[in-house]
Amino acid sequence: MDAEQKKEDLGGLEEVTRPELVAVVFSVGDREFSIELKYLREISELSEVVPLPLSPHYIEGITHLRGTAIPVVNMARLKDISERPGGQRWLMVLEVGENLLGLVSDQMPDLSTEYRGEIINVPELYETYRVR
Amino acid sequence: MAEKGLIDFFIAEAEEHMGILEKGFLELENNPEDLSGIHELFRAAHTLKGSAALVKLHVTSEVAHTMEDLLEEIRDQKVKVTKDIIDWLLHSLDAIKFLIAEVVRGNPEKKEIEREIKESLQVLMQESTLPELEEKEEGFVEKRELGRRKEDIETLSTYIRVRVENIEKMMNLVGELTVLRNYITAESEKIFKMKDEVDYAGKRLLKEIDSFSTRYAYSIPDRVSYVDELLEEFRELEFDRYDELNMFVRKLQEITEDITEALKGITGFFDQFYIHVKSLDRLNTEFRDLISQSRMVEIGRLFQRFTRTIRDLSHSSGKKVKFVVSGTDTKIDRLLYDRLFDPLLHLVRNAISHGLEPPEERLQKGKPEEGRIAMTARREGNSVVIDVKDDGRGIDLKKVYRRALELGFIKKGQRVSKGQLLGFMFRPGFSTADRGGALSGRGVGLDVVREAVSEMNGTINVATKEGKGTIFRIKLPLTLIIVNVVRFRAGGIEFVVPSALIQELIEFTEDSYDAGNKTVRIRDKVLEVKDICELLCLNTHREGGRHRAIVFNLMPGKELALIVDEVTGQEDTVIKPFGRFLEGLKYYSGVSISADGRLMPVINPATLLELTERPQETKVLRPDRRDGRTVLVVDDSLSVRKFVSATLAQKGYTVLTASNGLEALNIIDEHPVDLIITDLEMPVMHGYEFLRELQRRGLSAIIPSVVLTSRGSKKHREKAMVLGAQDYLIKPFEEITLLQTVRKHLKSPTPA
Q: Rounded CA gap, A32 and B677, in Å?
């Protein structure tokens, strides 16, 4: 009886203190960035990106995720950071209203309970850098 | 009776209205006091009346009219809803159903019905003015059997209404299927090739083993390597003996036979599979055609919309115009239907204001007083060709030449062909020759028409003869969603371009290429040449002295060859437009997903080739940097816009203005904006709609908006706040309040 009681208490305690994930943290070169978690739709390994000649320099091109074409923004080029050369890169698919946007991270992005590094305001990024 | 197509539309529509009426009447019967639904019934009868008259079903229209009148009286509470009234309403509804059913069967309308309905109503109205003396046993002229008459509805049910959106979705799915089918077809071709190779290899193996075995299956006596005591008594030819080689050969034979069997099985399977793939292919095409068809509308309805416009234009211009149409049953994609109106309207306006001569001038020239504008449509293969033709004075080529000179398109004394001259008219900035054209005016030229047409993957051409008239010819693909494209490679990237825009694919050697003038001689023509790798700043990947090029004829009289690295194929595919983030990249019209699942940008030759025409213009795209103090003022009142702008400009803010929400959205699309000040009551798109749209686009979070209105109620204010407004100012307002509010909401510090 007593033991059961304890278990329940612990269960309750665990629930209260379970840390809440708030952000996705990723890095480009030696810089860290955070994005509010609600904008993140998914993370996948970055496959082929098709370049779009004559587009702004920070647009790496388009890639596709199960049949949907997604514009890919290269944060390194956008923020003028030197990229870590070679190696696997990750694609963070962000949802901005009804639209999708891909950001590239050169390390596996991390879901985190706190914001680290520069916080990116996704709608603002989207509006500022979309091609008009 | 009107033409069949229109009748079909009418029936589909009528069915819906009759459904509303029937349901409504029955509800009214159950609840005669409740008149809340009467407006809807009135409207349904009214629309039915109108559309029946439109397709010349006059009896039906009259019956609906009588019904409408009665419903109006009920609505105005001049007539009380009684059982008799309901019976009459249902009876006349049945009459309409009967009339339409007859039409469906191909019979004319029965005139007597109109009389019967009208008379019965008269009787009814006389009766209803009397106090209800007795419970009538039956409704008058009650011909209706008990229960609803199902068969009436069924005669009409070959049509249902479908939301266009649903058809769009289906079409998109078919698009996806097409891509998948392409993939399967491409893959299975590879497999078939592999199968053939395996087949061939198997046969060779078999043949080798066969010849090997005839040589070695039986041993040569002196090489028998083992001795079997049991067989000692037999001589060589009396008993087959086997050495290892013999054994091996026999085994090989056996295995080969097994493989042959298996191969036969595989071949059988693949033959069957091939048939399935083929039929998948056929079904997909059929499916696509059917769904395409269901989104097709007859172009006649579009043409019809111009009747009124032309009549009005003819009145205001004092020119007499006869409008004729043909090929009205040609079907076009609904999407095209919607997008064609403006370009056609522009051509019609041009024809009336510039093409047709005033009546006196026509008479002098010996032409009929009445000018003629003809719109014709026809199908040509996978395209629809639409002509807008007038019998006016034709295009004044001298004028065009002068204007081209003025604009610097040509140099003085330069010889240009008629085709080239006509082509100039489609260039941006050419505009209409006569400034006075109040009709065509509106500040848009043929370049806008061309752009609109090329957005639909179509082309436009013009032919003219002095004194005889002008023809504009628009050629469009049948459907927009599934497009046949040519794939090509340039600088290591694979692109596609819709085949509809391509005139031909050519290949030429260095000796026909004039690199200095950038021209190539093909057969008897000299074509201007552009290199896509130069346009897109790509490295070329070419070998040998041969060039491959795609010839476009986007502008009349101007053919252009675009050199690419390699043409890689042709396929049916789905073009997906870029999302909002990339929509400003106008050199592409979207992206296509190929059979092998790769993304390929879709080149928009209309804009890409325009880029080459102004090489001095360096096109570097970069995002607009916000200065943090651009304010957009949205108000339909010019004085408010002026006052607010002046106040803000004085303090160093950049001010943009719009007279309604829609205009404002367009401005936001084009320019960076840091703060919005908007009125609530505006035409076209009011303030609440505008705020909601900002919210939907996720813009409310980044661009604060302030409402500036004369509506001071709490209700108005709260609604604005719910829709994302950050502040609320009431007119009249003080300058200082305005400035304080602006300062408060702008993130960056004020400039002054």
A: 37
